[in-house]
Fold:
Amino acid sequence: MASTAVGMGGGEGGPGAGGAPAGSAHPDDASSMSDDVFEDAETTQARIEELRRRPFGDGCYNPPAAPASVIMLGDSGVGKTSLLIRFRDGRYVPSYFLSTVGIDFRNKVVVVDGTRVKLQIWDTAGQERFRSVTHAYYRDAHALLLLYDVTNKTTYDNIRAWLGEIREYAQEDVVIVLIGNKADCSGSERQVKREDGERLGREHNVPFMETSAKTGLNVELSFTAVARQLKSRGYEHGDDGKFNVHDFVRDNTKARSVCAQCRNM
Ligand SMILES: Nc1nc2c(ncn2[C@@H]2O[C@H](COP(=O)(O)OP(=O)(O)OP(=O)(O)O)[C@@H](O)[C@H]2O)c(=O)[nH]1
Structure:
């Protein structure tokens, strides 16, 4: 789990520039284990409104098109923040002690066949008590990355409930990708087989892949699949609409890689 302070706050010049957003704490900070990191709902709401107003700040000049909004969802601890940091910064930040507070975002441009697709990726708190805050964002989402943790069966079982929430709050045509994260873990650590994830994806007609924020397995692919599908639907100079995300994911998914630490467990 990670706090929003972990490299988050993508907009340059916004309230989070040059430091951690309010209500977050750094793991090295002795105060980070105390209750004062938990802000009240009003403060969280004010903070996310500030975040929403931030300009798209990737250092490039992109005046006309607004970025596509991508939201990362899933139970607390499945690795949403870690996956986003891996994708955005190409690094893995091992264990932190604090969960994401409320919601925060990062920007990233993905180039699809020469076209820049700008993604504004929202990292949500998996904890139940922040749900009402994050529900407000579903409506504006173009795509959702829905994660479970392959080492935690409960997070897999909860995917159906997450899909129910998505149906209730998100747009009908929102792009969804189902992700089984922590695929570097194997043996006794693993509680959910890849085939179970594949079956769940088929049941709900959403593309599925396993990822590892730790090793980087399929991390790029998960966001590229989203960007390609958004482009194919007409977001940013749409193409012929013939792109098939299921085929794309199937053809590009890499086999599992196992980290040394987990192998020895
Ligand atoms: N082995 C392994 N551990 C991971 C991976 N991704 C995340 N973790 C660990 O899982 C824990 C939770 O990761 P987070 O990224 O904070 O999870 P989260 O979903 O953002 O959690 P919330 O903010 O509470 O919703 C941390 O200790 C991470 O280091 C992975 O791919 N492999």
